[in-house]
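Lab notebook: predicted structure, single chain.

Context: the supervisor wants predicted structures on file for every construct in the current expression panel, including those that have not yet been purified. This is the next one on the list. No modifications to the sequence; it matches the entry in the shared construct table.
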Amino acid sequence: MIPQPIPTLDASGSVLRDRRDRSAKTQSVPNKMTRMATSGHDESTRGAEGSVGLSPRDENLLAFERRLWSHPGAKEQAIRSEFGLSAARYYQLLGALLDSPLALAHDPMLVNRLQRMRDARSQARSARAIRPIE
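Prediction complete. Output recorded below exactly as produced.
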């Protein structure tokens, strides 16, 4: 008795017959991690004049980021209560939003300040990274 190969399934559950089918079907279906990592700022809304703008969620993220916080834990608690997100997910969305030209057009001073802060943190991290002894 010859063992039969196990069929390969695509994301919708249909059987892929050969490698050509496998590569064509699996490339067009985004995986769960890709969908989770996007901020959704590509889901913009059109105003009354037909111009493209930020989604309401993105506007709320920027408005939230403008606030001042009294103590370190207050912001994380507010993120959880207002958005229903973990702090890590909130900062992922904010990071993607900061790279959006729509966000820059919406509030250039805030976005530039947050980008500078992000760049300063990145440089500080790389400065304290472990380097080989020369």
